[in-house]
Batch of 2 targets.
Target 1
Amino acid sequence: MLNQSEKSYCEALLALKHKDYRVAANHFDAAALHFKDNREFNLLKETTNLLLTVKAERQELDSKDKIEIEEVFSYGQEENLR
Amino acid sequence: MSYGDALQSLENLLESFLERAVAAKEERLRVLSGVSRLDDIAHTTKDGGDITESLGEWFAEHNSWLSGDGLRPADALRINEILTEIREGLTTSADTSPALDKLGSEIDRWGQRATSTAQKLVLKRGPETPTEPAEGSIALFDRVLKRVANLYADSSGSRQHILSALDDSLESAKEQKSKDALLLSAFIIYYLKLNNYLVDPYVKRLKEAESVIKSEKRHA
């Protein structure tokens, strides 16, 4: 039988292939103890984590940039636009 | 470039790196993924689940491995081990059907393939010999150290200052082409350097003595 950590590493690579970075990060975490001295593993794991951080940062930045326009009507009449 | 642009650029770079890294491992990943899936099937067998369909699909998908392409001997052996476990599960199972029989014979076919490709690695080494080189170097250095200590005792006995002893030692190294004197000189110079003496002129003389000794060795 295969070691569970080996399977997790494999799942992580497959997730990377499908660009499921969050799933990949979770699988990397599951395999981390077994592969802690594997440089290639650590590089891929840390790059994935960094990518997720960058994506989160971008998302936050994008949400701040959005201008919310709300139309307010009272009694079916347009009162103002803010 | 704005902060947002920089983030976008970094994101693209990281994605591109991961994409290429995975692409470079594509073939290996295909094998590992196949082995992992087979392992899942083996677990299902152990839990008493029906594997007829999943194992049949696995064989169909990985049939090319039987011809020996793209599979390392270690992988072939690993697959064979897992298939053997599955085979044992099938044998102990009370259920029998033509489909299961067919899977059994397919497992046997894979087993034969693994046996034929298995490579035996034989490591050979010569008869045991005492580790003379290591002991020799220790003993050799020990002798040199004693000779150098004696040399220092001789040259420093009548001197008032270590610089005079160094001067004598450098002279011996150069004129008598003495390697021991050269080592002693280097040792004293390093000692003086650590104690903040200006050693540049002595280093220059040491290098001169060293080149004389090297030149003598070449002509010997």
Target 2
Amino acid sequence: MSKPFIFKAEFWVPKSTGIKVLSLKDFIETLKWIDKFSIFYHMYVNIFNYHNLPTFYNNSFSYWLYKNNYLALAEKISIVDPIEYFDLEELRISLIKILEENYDKHLEGNIIEPFFFITVDREIIEYKNPADNLEEFIKKFKKSSINSVFYHLVTSRIENKTLINDYSSWLLSIGEAKKAELINKLDIYSMNLYEIKKEITKILECKE
Amino acid sequence: MIKKYIPFVGEESINELFILAEKVKNLRILHVNSTYKGGGVAEILSRIVPLMRELEIKADWKVIKGDEKFFNFTKKLHNLLHLSFSIPIESEEIVHYLKIIYENMNKINTDNYDVIFIHDPQPIGLVIKKQPGQKWIWRCHIDTSAPNPQAWDFLENFINAYDACIFHMPEFVYRGIKIPTYIVPPSIDPLHPKNVQLSKEETKNILAKFGIDPEKPVITQVSRFDRLKDPFGVISAYKLVKKKYDSQLILVGSFASDDPEGENVYKELLNLTADEKDIFILNLPPDSHKEINAFQRGSTVVVQKSIKEGFGLVVSEAMWKEKPVVGSNIGGIKRQIVHGITGYLVNSIEGTAMRIKQLLANKEFIKTMGLYGKERVRNRFLIIRHLRDYLILIHKILTNPTKMTSA
């Protein structure tokens, strides 16, 4: 017998770290020690904040690099898909590696805008009445918000230190391997969360 | 009332708000500012306080009282923080400020509350009255990114006695803050008469009442008659646009009877445009919400060409009405407009003109940017998000140990 699925949702209030940097070098150095939830904010929460807009970049590091004319670096950072990471420290290492490998002190130019490192206070809530079976799961999933979708697809993986999202993990436990696999393959980094919710609903309701 | 927001944010978001509110239910929360009427702070509190009560939070709202001398000083302080003038603060002014704060401490009972929100610099000194176990939060609604240092030092004397503070943007957080510092942007209320849906017919009728042709493109800036809103720059940009596009410009705002500078700006604008039949300089009473709503809805493009801006929520108001906004690349304007997606960020009169022309030439851009603008506001700048941020913040401050934010 599998455990019931508890729907949760996540919210954030941004917090100032009091740290702003005025050069690419300082940006890289700060990234090495800044609170990991600052990386969480700039790489993950920004996906949420801009998911419904076709922005140039969906993380604020890339956008800052782009605005300051580090165009190639902006692109190299933008391709880092944070959904492929479940450990913020691993993600930090990858970002620094890219930045350091491509850093050239001759690149340092006039910074047009400083970068403000922000962190977050997170709050996770639980919905009432967990789902005990697929039918209930579908019903409750449809009534859940995009904050809930984001929590289960993205940040629950960081909490549980796994590459499998919450929905897929639970679906596997009730023998729905195909649905679990299809959901785990969705491109959360690039898609609108409302569209993702529709896609998941389709996958869940598919009778195959 | 809270359920009336379901059409804008969805039933699931409102249900989540109730779940979040369980964590702070029955808390006694007091908001203190300097006025019940006029200005964005009073406007937002008049909505947030009843919404908090509906979530079973015992929320109250009180205002400090002061004489002319007190408010002259706080106005000066506001200007020094916002605009960094180099006028010294006199010790006599500080003594009078503290005297009035002391009088208010006796009039405003803060002891019966768990959490006290103090809005803006005027009542900041009330924190002297903080009791053990209470949490005091200072909510700053102005741009303090480059303040006059003496004015900031005056504030700093009080800020670090609070348990947390809140600014609109990280850029506004100045030096010396040692308490948790949250970033909570302001918001607009979709149920406010300024923002409620108007029919096309109502919109057209209001425009026509002012002699504006609803069938011809309309470019609008809504703002006080203030040089910092650069109405003269907007007219220059419009004249560049007008060479190719038969269009109309509306500069609509108001000035208070005690604002001689506003009246001067208004008169200068009238003189400058006396022979321009397609430029409308409209000074309306401050409660002309329906008219402002209609001007925004009847616009083809909305402009916000401010030189300095606290946050500039008028940008979100226009975006909520599916209008592309051409705005200055400054302050809160650049936080609201996503360049090239919901409008354009510009740095000059020429840039403003070029982007307006680009929009007038491409109806599809107008439509797409308008839709994205509304989505941006729905997700980031509506009052429900603002209320939710406050609930989380209150809960966090009550449950987390206070720690320094700066390294």
